[in-house]
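Repro:
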Amino acid sequence: MSQNLLMIEDDARLARMVTEYLGQSGYPVHHAGTGQAGLDALQAAPADLVILDLMLPDMDGLEVCRRIRSLPGVLASTPVLMLTAKGDPMDRIIGLEIGADDYLPKPFEPRELLARIRAVLRRRVDLASSTAAPGLRFGSLEIDRDARTVTVGAQACELTSYQFDLLVALAERAGRVLTRDQIMEAVRGRELEAFDRSIDVHMGRIRAAIEVDAKNPKRILTVRGVGYVFARQQD
């Protein structure tokens, strides 16, 4: 079954190139030239992934991403791959903080874009086909792998697709100290630079969603100089 992508990009030449390349690789792309047009298109015909440019004529990509995350139902969890300015780490960090699943700096090779898209979509397929029991419970924290939902008590927690995958990877290995490389390997995500802060940014967002006090976490603990451990006993 083909997976449909939405590209929100005001550079018509780049959009045509990406649309043609991804289409030849089996990924039909719908193009929207403004942020509002992209939001309207996503609500009219849900996409499997959104390729979102940071610089748009009517609103910036960060605002578009925020609005996607506030949409109703499953639309809010649509994976977002953000296109950012090369050499600006703050754009990447802010994008991840407000809900992007991945980023790619411009200019980029179409093959790398395709690889990133496949990695994000593969994570969803892998989790959907898992034979493990759908539910993970740790005190008041409950993770439903089939529904891809997280609740603490009766309160739903908002996480991006990538953040949900990271949380599941940690929870399935509760009590084990994992390095950042092991965490990335567990979710089979993109290769990152050795000092890339994106994992730490995502962990901060996950903690903000599931911890009573994100500054004094009881669920996801930092092991200084090593990585993270998901606590077996939490409440």
